[in-house]
């Protein structure tokens, strides 16, 4: 059994661990393991859902939740408000339950009824076919690139490897890792290989983190995952205006949908992103569907 799966099993109570370990020991490319009260444990692998004949009880879910919070829910409250907790190894655990909110602001999630372990995958070399569009060795520069994909299509895995290769090419790379999925830092040390010239700001909101790194680390390349809101876009524009190359991702199914979205228009054209990459699962997660040069 590989290290990534073993890390997940450490959070599962003994009432479930043995049966889950037995069922998954021969499965390859496991991407998610879900636990729901009163329902079978489900595994997402190779584009299919497999159910294990083991039912998760409320006590099981509570035990797993306490384990991922290291038995201090209060310490993880800010993460819980976002709907997920990132655990050692960079695995993200999605949380479902009763949302407690006040004036439209989420304050907590209680009565946890479901947990989804999204397995972190480090695939060294997965961006080898892509990097030639990004790193211009002749002119000694990195072309700002936006990676687009639907969920579960490997954009974070691709982003991580692009950061590594840019670093190996001799560029100073700064990574804003707000959810801990890129570097999988533990006690401040990246558990994934991001290259020798890479600095990581872990657990910081994207927009604030990008501005901090621009002011303090003088990056040549800035890497961040999942641009979502206007604050993120503003920070990316600040980096681009300062001559910093940006490698980022965004959720989407088609390149044209992103290009025509009013929210993202400012990111393109003169001084903006030079490449857009579309990923899919057609030949497995991380399939490069299209690279469009702008």
Report on this model:
- The chain has nine helices and 15 strands.
- The protein is an alpha/beta fold and 294 residues long.
- It folds into two domains: 3-118, 2-Layer Sandwich (Beta-Lactamase); 131-293, 3-Layer(aba) Sandwich (Rossmann fold).
- The chain has a seven-stranded mixed sheet, sandwiched between helices.
- Helix 7 (206-216) packs parallel to helix 8 (230-241).
- The radius of gyration is 20 Å and the shape is globular.
- The relative contact order is 0.12.
Question: What is the fold's blueprint, element by element?
Answer:
Elements: H1 3-9, H2 14-24, E1 30-36, E2 40-45, E3 48-55, H3 58-68, H4 77-82, E4 84-86, E5 92-102, E6 105-118, H5 131-134, E7 135-136, E8 141-142, E9 145-149, H6 155-168, E10 173-177, E11 198-202, H7 206-216, E12 221-224, H8 230-241, E13 245-251, H9 255-259, E14 275-280, E15 287-293
Parallel strand pairs: 9-13, 9-14, 10-11, 10-12, 12-13
Antiparallel strand pairs: 1-2, 1-6, 2-3, 4-5, 5-6, 7-8, 14-15
Helix pairs in contact: 7-8
């Amino acid at each position: 059994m590989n290290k990534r799966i073993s890390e997940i099993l450490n959070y599962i109570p003994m009432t479930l661990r043995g049966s889950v370990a037995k069922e998954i020991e021969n499965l390859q490319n496991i991407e998610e393991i879900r636990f729901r009260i009163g329902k079978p444990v489900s595994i997402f692998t190779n584009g299919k859902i497999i159910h294990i004949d083991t039912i998760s009880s409320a006590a099981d879910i509570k035990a797993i939740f306490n384990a991922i919070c290291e038995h201090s829910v209060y310490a993880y409250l800010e993460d819980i408000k976002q709907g997920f907790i990132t655990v050692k190894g960079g695995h993200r655990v999605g949380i479902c339950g009763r949302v407690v909110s006040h004036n439209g602001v989420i304050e907590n999630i209680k009565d946890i009824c479901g947990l989804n372990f999204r397995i972190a995958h480090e695939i060294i070399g997965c961006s080898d076919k892509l990097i030639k569009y990004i790193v211009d060795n002749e002119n000694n520069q990195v072309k700002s690139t936006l990676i687009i994909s639907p969920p579960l299509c490997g954009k974070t895995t691709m982003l991580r490897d692009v950061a590594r290769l840019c670093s190996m090419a001799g560029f100073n790379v700064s990574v804003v890792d707000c959810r801990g999925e890129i570097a999988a830092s533990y006690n401040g040390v990246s558990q994934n290989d991001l290259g020798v010239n890479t600095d990581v700001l872990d657990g910081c909101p994207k927009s604030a983190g990008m501005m901090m790194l621009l002011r303090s680390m003088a990056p040549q390349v800035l890497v961040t995952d999942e641009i979502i809101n206007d604050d993120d876009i503003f920070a990316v524009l600040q980096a681009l205006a300062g001559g910093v190359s940006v490698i980022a991702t965004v959720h989407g199914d088609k390149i044209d949908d992103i290009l025509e979205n009013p929210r993202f228009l400012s990111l393109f054209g003169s001084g903006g992103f030079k490449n857009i990459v579309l990923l899919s699962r057609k030949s497995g997660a991380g399939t490069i569907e299209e690279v469009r040069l702008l």
